[in-house]
């Protein structure tokens, strides 16, 4: 599609005087009007003429300059429609030539994107609440990879803070009642919940938790730190099992403890900027007036211990020194909005010039019908249980529809996990999600399995074509036979545009919506057109469309982290 865009921009530039790079083309709301639209509003002021009149005057001039592209004035817009056989040949040949690389580019070459994602807490099981940061962040990283950026995915593990003092105190008091070796995560969760149930009525327990965290922060390598290290090892082993199933990996796995040596230098750097002050024995940065009435950022408490904000600032300075990033994206729930406003507020007060590059990629919270999840109250749904149940449901459905399927268990894993991941990514990330089993495990309607099934259906057509000696061959295609597949062709041609927009907006749902729309159009087209057993020119064109569509669905699902089965 880019070659048509460039041709239109060049012709418009000649006729309007606007530099080609500044010519803004839109997608018409009604596809029947054309493939591209140029709004004439900006020219109205300069030419002192109504936009519809300008569009009408430009129509014949553009028509004379463009080959195989029709120009037509419609109200204040000048619409352009590429001749369908030319469109089909250009789009399908490019998709088939580039294959797995179709949609990618090198526009981000030489630029680094740092992405903070997943970030579960040590000693707690990964719940469905961790799903969003993990799969949204991984998809955003793959989007930027596709555009040629150097990406650094960082799993910033929560392995520090006062809660670990509490957990050490709980292990010391009740650890013998639980089997930490055989069932570490469930045992630690039970201990964590028990501590919070009893601390209010047990001052001694509360003081033990506080003392343990102070010892942890002191750097003393004794019993507390040894217990903390063991809890970290047990948790990371369990996390890795989940990540393997989700197809997610990281360039760095660093806990908050990694930044312990950087805490004092960070505080000193902020103090040197002259923006800190003492408030009731605590070290703070006053942020009132930086962005509305924002509360101060607390760097060090009265007892000398640091906070999450201190550690996040230390991590940010460290990442800038390492990577000099183009963007630093924090894929963290929207309920942490104030935290990131405070971080950016501190950076602004310190005078850090790269502060605008730090972005909070907020997402809505995952909630249960009975309310928000809470580890302290033991009200969680474990992510491993969700994946297991989804895979089992997928297995049952596949057995009903295709009992002879080879590699049934492997396909059930792909479909079940894919259903969970796609169910999350198809939504705009800022929206809250109510976790309802029936919806997550649905294999009907606008779901991951629907897209996967469309891909498998296209793969089946291609296998049958090969068996019948009708393997796709673009050179024998009659492209005029795809006039009624124009909507599919245009959508295939806009795949890169979709990836670029999704990366720019850090919004994977744009890719999921694209795939759903493409699958709807494909299934409607396929129901009305027989592909196999047609004259050579017809089957050649239709098989090229099938093959190219399969390539794009495969590429899109890969960006989202969802498998594309060949059979279902």
Question: Could you characterize the architecture of this molecule?
Answer:
This protein is an alpha/beta fold and 568 residues long. Among the domains are: 2-82, 2-Layer Sandwich (Gyrase A, domain 2); 160-231, no CATH class; 383-560, Isoleucyl-tRNA Synthetase, Domain 1 (Orthogonal Bundle), CATH 1.10.730.10. It is 53% helix and 12% strand. The chain has helices at 2-16, 41-47, 51-65, 84-98, 131-146, 162-174, 184-198, 203-218, 223-246, 263-272, 308-323, 337-350, 383-401, 408-425, 437-440, 448-467, 486-493, 495-504, 509-528, 536-560; strands at residues 36-39, 69-74, 77-82, 112-117, 150-157, 252-255, 276-279, 282-285, 297-300, 327-333, 358-363, 366-368, 371-372, 433-434. The chain has a 5-stranded parallel sheet, with helices on both faces. A 3-stranded antiparallel sheet has the order 1-3-2. It starts with a helix and ends in an 8-residue tail after the last helix.
């Amino acid at each position: 599609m880019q070659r048509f865009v460039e041709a239109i921009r060049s012709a418009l530039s000649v006729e309007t005087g606007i530099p080609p790079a500044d010519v803004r083309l839109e997608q018409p709301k009604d596809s029947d009007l054309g493939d591209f639209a140029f709004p004439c509003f900006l020219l109205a002021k300069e030419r002192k003429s109504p936009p519809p009149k300008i569009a009408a005057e430009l129509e014949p001039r553009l028509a004379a300059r463009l080959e195989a592209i029709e120009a037509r004035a419609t109200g204040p817009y000048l619409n352009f429609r590429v001749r369908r056989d030319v469109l089909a040949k250009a789009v399908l040949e490019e998709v088939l030539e580039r294959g797995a690389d179709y949609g990618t580019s090198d526009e981000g070459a030489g630029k680094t994107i740092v992405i903070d994602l997943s970030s579960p807490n040590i000693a707690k099981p990964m719940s469905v609440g961790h799903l969003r940061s993990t799969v949204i962040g991984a998809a955003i990283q793959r989007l930027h990879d596709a555009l040629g950026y150097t990406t650094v995915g960082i799993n910033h593990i929560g392995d520090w803070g006062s809660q670990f003092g509490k957990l050490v105190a709980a292990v010391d008091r009740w650890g013998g009642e639980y089997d930490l070796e055989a069932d570490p995560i469930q045992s630690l969760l039970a201990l964590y919940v028990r501590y919070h149930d009893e601390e209010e009525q047990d001052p001694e327990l509360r003081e033990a938790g506080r003392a343990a965290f102070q010892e942890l922060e002191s750097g003393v390598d004794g019993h507390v730190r040894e217990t903390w290290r063991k809890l970290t090892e047990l948790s990371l082993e369990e996390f890795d099992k989940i990540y393997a199933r989700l197809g997610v990996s990281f360039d760095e796995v660093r806990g908050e403890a990694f930044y312990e040596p950087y805490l004092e230098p960070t505080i000193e750097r902020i103090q040197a900027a002259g923006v800190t002050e003492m408030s009731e024995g605590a070290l703070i940065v006053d942020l009132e007036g930086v962005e509305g009435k924002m509360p101060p950022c607390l760097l060090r408490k009265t007892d000398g211990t640091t906070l999450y904000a201190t550690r996040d600032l230390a991590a940010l300075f460290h990442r800038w020194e390492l990577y000099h990033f183009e963007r630093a994206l924090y894929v963290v729930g929207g309920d942490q909005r104030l935290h990131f406003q405070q971080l950016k507020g501190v950076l602004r007060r310190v005078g850090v010039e790269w502060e605008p590059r730090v972005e909070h990629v907020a997402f809505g919270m995952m909630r249960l019908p009975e309310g928000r999840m809470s580890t302290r109250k033991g009200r969680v749904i474990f992510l491993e249980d969700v994946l297991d149940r989804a895979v089992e449901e997928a297995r049952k459905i596949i057995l009903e529809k295709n009992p002879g399927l080879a590699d049934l268990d492997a396909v059930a894993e792909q479909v079940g996990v894919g259903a969970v991941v796609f169910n999350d990514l198809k939504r705009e990330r800022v929206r809250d999600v109510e976790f309802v089993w029936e919806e997550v495990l649905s294999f009907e309607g606008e779901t991951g399995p629907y897209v996967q099934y469309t891909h498998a259906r296209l793969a089946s057509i291609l296998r049958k074509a090969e068996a019948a000696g009708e393997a796709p061959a673009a050179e024998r295609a009659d492209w005029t036979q795809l006039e009624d597949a124009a909507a599919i062709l245009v959508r295939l041609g806009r795949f890169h545009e979709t990836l670029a927009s999704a990366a720019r907006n850090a919004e994977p749902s744009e890719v999921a919506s694209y795939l759903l729309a493409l699958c709807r159009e494909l299934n409607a087209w396929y129901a009305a057109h027989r592909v196999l057993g047609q004259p050579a020119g017809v089957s050649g064109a239709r098989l090229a469309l099938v093959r190219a569509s399969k390539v794009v669905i495969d590429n899109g699902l890969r960006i989202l982290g969802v498998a594309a089965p060949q059979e279902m």
